[in-house]
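Class, look over these structure tokens:
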Amino acid sequence: MTAGNESVPELLPMVFAAPNEALARARALLDSAPPPEHASVAHQVIGIWQRDWGDLRLALEHLRRARDLAARAESPEREADVLATLGVALVHAGRTRQGLAAFEQGVRRGSGHTRARVLYRRAYVWWVLGHHREALEDVRRAIPVLRQTGDVIWTARALTLRATVHLALGAVERAEADFTAAEALWDTTGQEHDKADAVESRGLAAFRAGDIPAALRLLDEAEERYAKLGTPTFMLNIRRCEVLMAAGLAPEALAEADAAIAVLDGIGGQSTRKAELLLAAARAARLAGDPGTAIARAAVAVRLFSGQRRGWWEAHARLVLIEARFASGRGYGRLVADAARVAERLEGSGAPAAPEAWLLAGRIALHLDWTEDAERYLRVAARSRRSGPPLARITGWAAQALRARAAGSGRGVLEACRRGLAVLDDHRMTLGASELRARATAQGAELAALAQAVSLAGGGPRRLLEWSERWRATVLTAPPTRPPADPVLQSGLTAFREIAARAEEARRDGRPVPALEREQRRLEREVRSRTLHIRGDAPGGGYRFDVAGMLERLGDGRLVALAVLDGRVQVLLCGGGRVRRFAGGQVERAEREAEHVQATLRRLAHPRAEGRLPLVEAMGRRLEEVLLGPAARHLGSGPVVVVPPARLHSVPWALLPSLRERVVSVSPSASSWLRARETEPPTGGRHVLVRGPGLATGGAEVPEVADRYGRATVLEDADARVPRVLEELDGAALAHIAAHGDFRADSPLFSSLRMVDGPLIVHDFERLARSPYRIILSSCDTARLASVGADELLGLVTALLPLGTAGVVASSAPVNDEAVVPLMLALHKGLGDGLSLAEALRDARAAVPSDATHQATGWAFTAFGAA
């Protein structure tokens, strides 16, 4: 490169069009011994690159050198421009006073167009510092000048910045207008980094407007653009953490924030970004139920923000610190005043987080019985229930519910809870991915618990049942949004399946698999990411639970709905035209017993474990005592439907003595049981039998079952491939799948059944137009589910129920393959005699040999639904 006048000015805009190329050209220019003004440009380019994507210490060295060279060249405009760049770097290094002084000098040295650019960059710094009104004033002065001079790039930057400031103040519509205007300008330029930043900003706007799928999609697109440029993405990390937390994915947000902090520390990057990442990590840790980590991260963030003179940010960090301390039981009295002070600071600066702070102050005051203070704080927090994004309105309704409870108004509590959960219903249905719908319910957990507590205290068993149903298994109230015809998603699923199959083959052969496992995890992330982008298309608030209709449908049967309030099981026994309540035991004890039972069933799946049979039977008696209590004596003689809370999904209900000889089915909610009862079987009665690879018995029951049904479609060997299996399963009356199951606790929607060409996962089932009316999964762990959100379950079974499946038989534990065969044959005999799945499973358990392995296998299987 030459040092000619025509080429040097191109370097500065190139930093945000092709950053690495600009860096290389600037270094080459310096090697050519350029005159001071040109050298100043080169050092400024290197300083910008180091400031935004490298070592901040080196950035300051180059920018100071650029300033000195501009002064030597006697170019006030050049000096003003460098001073603005230096001011940004100083602020990012935590040297706020020096940075603002550099801007003052730059404003004095520059004129016209240059001064407008300086004002824009000072507006950016005001935004970083949380001085939003000052930021708006500077950018208001800069934009007209930039427009008049035809400076498209800097006008677009200024519009993008103004939109971002509007978002920080909660003015979403103004922000969207500025983002739209900026994007139109960016389309006329080659500024690829700025374009990526514009996409990122639109993602932030979508999030502030409550559109989480669009926010995730846009942030992922921005990340792809940054990756092509080879630049780090710390601001993107911060924004994605916000969206992940709102989507109920706090552990992922914490991991992302901590990883970004490690990268930032490794390159000696911006102190301001580190403080913001620490704040994001603190919020994520608090939401993930880790107050200790939240306190540690938030305390460091407070210290950094304070040193950087960033009061707006410091107030947000203090809010998280107080929330975490309250969650850990520390210093309640002092925390009330601290929370109120933070709330006043946030409200004074127009921060959207102010209602959250007022709610926290009121909640702590209520905990201390400071009713007057609580009423004052909650009244202010409740104002947000009328307007704003969904999560802010839910905060307001939570405050209103707490106010009503403090005033002794049960009716007021229920009304506030009803209104707040209705807001969350509407928000939840904008989410297309069943995982996001399930996790979003956590936002309504407090409202549901308040309503249940009021119902328990004075509303009667029927009302308690209604409110327990109101927020139980809500993901199943509407079918999931079908994945679009997305070729990228389809190719990702195919590639994932191929890699997973190769990894499994390598494990069987004893070959190393780390590289394959890394590629499998990468493909999983891509598939999941594309799935989370899906926007919901079903209206909210459609189905409502009908207690009278349920009691009529039960006939001579009983439905046992278990609710958990204040750590204790409440048994709601429905049948005979009424709902009765019985007190159970402590839910923690039930969870421990269920875990012990599962461990023992796993051992009984292997030979020579007969001595443990009396042990597991004793566990069943203890489980019945804590889960059913006196209700066990009032079950009548008919069939029983059990509706457990999500945290008790792993209980093998057939093991409980009072249920062992009964027809028992399990449902995630009474509502879903009613819908299963009303689901009509498909015409034609098509039967599909699938036999996957690698079973110890080779799926020995499949040929005999096929003979029983005569015209059944049998898929095995090369036919047992995922595309063909899905094609045949769609709309079948009965499906029996004998295949190895794999439950993924870390990612439940990647739980799978092994086919010849790789795993058949939950995401695949969600592509069916209608899943089989009845489905039998005769393999290990197919009924295991992950508890998420308020009271939701994710896994194979819950994926099938909203898609048209009325009944499922599956196992919640590893089972003995050989013992499964006679159980399945007996089960299909009962189905051939016209029995339901639950009836046939009851008879099948009685028909198999009485040794420990066969008995444990029978207990491990559960009938779900009502078919």
